[in-house]
């Protein structure tokens, strides 16, 4: 089966005014779709033709196939990113994630500051992450299409896109305003808790 573009888990306008329908139309319908299409083009007829997306990403990284890695990892990152948001989300977490953040960051405010800083200081394009590693939570940032989960023992819990196409139509060059809106209004902590349970 070829890699497919997943549907958004909410209506295109459901995240407004924090992320507009126009942004999602371009971000999901054009940028994400282009990564999916290019991945399928690059694996067609080869040994990865019917492989799961995670396997393609790992193989591309291991073989230093940069074009395949960039497109397949971006396809994965975006699929994960959509699930990390929901209408009426954001604010302080609940459940196991809340307890883990309290333990690992001395509270939500400290986590929020660390995560926002990771997103704001990622030079150029990239991603901010909350991951679980060896029973602890860590905030990370990665450039371009890079992912932390190809490292053994790392489980992604939350991702925030800081490529300009994620926010420029709504926030122009004000990346910190987008980051604040993401944290305060969009984070899907239920999904983050599901990911933590699997870590």
Question: What does this entry look like structurally?
Answer:
With 199 residues, the protein is α+β, with helices and mostly antiparallel strands. The protein has 2 domains: 21-83, Fe,Mn superoxide dismutase (SOD) domain (Helix Hairpins), CATH 1.10.287.990; 95-198, minor pseudopilin epsh fold, CATH 3.55.40. 51% of the residues lie in helices and 12% in strands. The protein contains 8 helices and 3 strands. The protein has helices at residues 21-43, 53-62, 66-83, 95-105, 108-121, 168-171, 175-185, 189-198; strands at 126-133, 136-143, 154-161. It has a 3-stranded antiparallel beta sheet with strand order 2-1-3. A hairpin with a 2-residue loop joins strand 1 (126-133) and strand 2 (136-143). The model has no long low-confidence stretch (mean pLDDT 97).
In short:
The protein is an alpha+beta fold and 199 residues long. It is 51% helix and 12% strand.
Structural class by SSE content: alpha+beta
Beta content = 5-15%
CATH topology of the largest domain: minor pseudopilin epsh fold
Under CATH, the homologous superfamily of the largest domain reads: Iron/manganese superoxide dismutase, C-terminal domain
- Radius of gyration, rounded? 16 Å
**Principal-axes shape call:** globular
Mean pLDDT: 97
Number of helices: 8
The strand order across the widest sheet is 2-1-3
- Number of separate strands: 3
> Which sequence of SSEs, written as H and E, runs from N to C?
HHHHHEEEHHH
Q: Helix coverage percent of residues?
A: 40-55%
* Straight-line N-to-C gap: 27 Å
Describe the sheet with the most strands.
3 strands, antiparallel
Q: Which architecture of the largest domain per CATH?
A: 3-Layer(bab) Sandwich
CATH class of the largest domain: Alpha Beta
Low-confidence sequence ranges: none
């Amino acid at each position: 089966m070829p890699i497919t573009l997943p549907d958004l888990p909410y209506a295109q306008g459901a995240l407004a005014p924090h992320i507009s329908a126009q942004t999602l139309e371009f971000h999901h319908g054009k940028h994400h779709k282009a990564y999916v299409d290019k991945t399928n083009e690059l694996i067609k007829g080869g040994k990865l033709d019917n492989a799961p997306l995670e396997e393609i990403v790992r193989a591309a990284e291991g073989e230093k196939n940069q074009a395949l890695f960039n497109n397949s990892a971006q396809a994965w990152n975006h699929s994960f990113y959509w699930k990390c948001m929901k209408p009426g989300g954001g604010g302080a977490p609940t459940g196991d994630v809340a307890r883990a953040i309290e333990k690992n960051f001395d509270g939500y405010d400290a986590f929020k500051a660390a995560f926002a800083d990771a997103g704001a200081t990622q030079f150029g394009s990239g991603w901010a992450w909350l991951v679980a590693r060896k029973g602890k939570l860590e905030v990370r940032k990665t450039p371009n299409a890079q992912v932390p989960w190809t490292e053994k023992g790392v489980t992604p819990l939350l991702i925030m896109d800081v490529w300009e196409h994620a926010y420029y139509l709504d926030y122009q060059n004000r990346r910190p305003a987008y980051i604040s809106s993401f944290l305060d209004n969009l984070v899907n902590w239920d999904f983050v808790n599901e990911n933590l349970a699997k870590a």
